[in-house]
Structures are given as C-alpha cells and as structure tokens.
Amino acid sequence: MSEVMDAADAEHAHGYIEHKDALLKRLRRAEGQVRGVQRMVQEDEYCIDILTQVSAATKALERVALELLDDHLRHCVASAAAEGGAVAAEKLHEASAAIARLVR
Amino acid sequence: MSEVMDAADAEHAHGYIEHKDALLKRLRRAEGQVRGVQRMVQEDEYCIDILTQVSAATKALERVALELLDDHLRHCVASAAAEGGAVAAEKLHEASAAIARLVR
Amino acid sequence: MSEVMDAADAEHAHGYIEHKDALLKRLRRAEGQVRGVQRMVQEDEYCIDILTQVSAATKALERVALELLDDHLRHCVASAAAEGGAVAAEKLHEASAAIARLVR
Amino acid sequence: MSEVMDAADAEHAHGYIEHKDALLKRLRRAEGQVRGVQRMVQEDEYCIDILTQVSAATKALERVALELLDDHLRHCVASAAAEGGAVAAEKLHEASAAIARLVR
Hints:
4 copies of one chain form a homotetramer. Chain A has helices at residues 3-11, 20-42, 47-83, 85-103.
C-alpha cells in the first residue's frame, strides 16, 4: 500500500467496518466449510460430494469479496473521487485491478 | 436506466468514449471468434479445439467488460461520487451489481 | 491435435453432432449479442447497459462450452476410456486441461 | 449419492486417494488463508489488501477443485465408462453438473 493511500486512509474509516460482524460470520462459515472439505478428504468421501462442498466454500468467499468491494467503492473510492487528483486516480486504478483479479 | 442517471449522463460523456476505437476493434475480433466457432461446429471439428476457441472468445469479452468497467468507474462513478447524494449512491449500487454479474 | 487423437476420432463421431443445430442456434445468438454490444458502443450507450449485454454474451458462450464439454465427455472421453491405454489417458488429460481453461 | 453410485464405488477407490496428502496440505493452506482474512478484517486492514488475500484463498480452492475433478475423471468416470450402461451415464451426468457448478 503506497503512502498516498495511507494519507487517505487516515481520514476515512474502511467501508467494511459497519458490517464487520456480518463479514466475520461469513468468513468463519467459509473456514468451517474448508475444514469440512479436509474431513471429507480424510474420510475418503465421494469426489463429487467433496466438489460440491468446495464450490460452496468458493461461493462464500466470492460473496465476501463482492461485499468488501462494494464497501470499498462506497467509502474509500467515493471519498477519494470527491477529492480528486492523484489519490483518486490511484484508488480507481487499484479498484479496477482488484475487480480484474476477482473476475479471472 | 433511471431518470436520475439520465441527468448525470447529460453532463458527462461516457468514459469509454476515449478508446471507443480500441473497444470496437476488440469486439469485432470477438465477433470473428464466435463466427469461427460456428464454422468449426459446422465442419465437425474436434470438440477440444472448438472449446479452446470458445474460451478465447469468452476471455476477449471479459477483457472488454473489465475495460468498460474501469472507464465507468473513472468517469461516471468518479464524477457522481464527487457530487455525492442520491446519484452517487445509485451509481455505486449499479456498479457493484455489474461487478457481481461479471464475477458470477 | 495429436495423431493418437486422430485415430480415435476416425472411429467415433464427435458427441456434439446430435445437437449441432441447437449449438449453432445458440452461437448465432451469441454472435448477435456481440454485434449488439458493438452497436451500443458506437451509439454511445450507457456503460452499465453495455456491460449487461456483454455479460449476456459471455454467459451464452459459457453455456455453449459446458454443452460441448458434456458431449465430449459422453462420447469421445467415454469411448476412449472404454478402450483404455494411451488414448484414454491423453483424452482425460486433454479434457481436464479444457475444464481448467473454462474455470479460470 | 445414489445406490447406483455406491455399487460402483465399492469396486474402485476414489481417484484422489493417491495424492490425499498433497490435497490436504493445499486445503490446510487455504484454511490458513481464510483465517488470515478474518484477522485482517478484525485488525481493520485496508480493503484492497484483504481482497488480495480473499482472491488467493479462492484460487487455492479452485486448484483443489480442478485436481479433484481430474482425479475423478481419471478414476471413477473412466472405470464407469469402461463398464458402460446406467452407471456410466449417471457418472458422466454428475461430472458435467459438477463442472457447471465450478464454471458458474
């Protein structure tokens, strides 16, 4: 994270903070699903049933990512955009790169 | 598209306009790839070779989508965010929904 | 495509041949959607509306890919697996590689 | 899992058993990444850095899924295909459905 970013962050709390508890709950559930997959592999369960559980964990993480990104756009990006300049340009560039990583 | 959006659009040109030619070039190439897939199916080509071509067309469209989204964030969303209020909230909501459609 | 593959192909028609018409219809629709995206870009339509259309074309191509892959597994891969040996191993390797390209 | 499947499974060990240790190692790493995301959220780290970690965990799970699927095709599906009949048809249908869940 660049220093330009740090300066912006000092002023605005991260967007996800309002629903930190909901995010943590989702993440604990995803962690439990990944542990469930391990148990299924250890107990030699059927491949397709394991794959179903892996897909559930992946979808849960995707939802977390979309929520974080939505919060990020609404808070960090929106306030940087309101200020404009180099910080805004960097935040927008960074958000686009994060979206590309999610899509690919 | 809501009227709230129309009002915002009237003021700012769409972000992608600066590289409309590059976008159109990419899209014509994707169209050619989809036509190529049709020809391969018609000529009974090998399934896996057809799948490779379908993947290429899908990746080309994904790149177009990421470019459009990046332009949209830099222009429409950034300028709406600078103004704030209902238009900004709606634009951000709309952008998140578009990102979710791309990811899923 | 390797010669090992050609030998196998000579014996079995490609799986997708039974619903070639349905596949071609889907592909023509996807081609029309990609042309629609070009027209929207040319006419300076709203970014989010264009993105919705790009997503529709991408989903259509994904469905074509899943159909081709299903046909491929049911025909080429199943008959190679029944024969076993090097052809079976190569077909399975090839199918997995195609699946990985679709997922990423 | 249908009874038809159970009958087939009794005869063949699941394909992933040969690299169970490697799979479990990958899964433990993914679990650690998900726990890392929780800690980052708890410590109010920067959204984009959290997103990068979420993407890493998602990609790790995707690799696990592709590995499981490859093993499944090589073992369960290949041996069912060699036998043919209802079991083969059901296994292939099931594999295609699992692939579709991964892609979407």
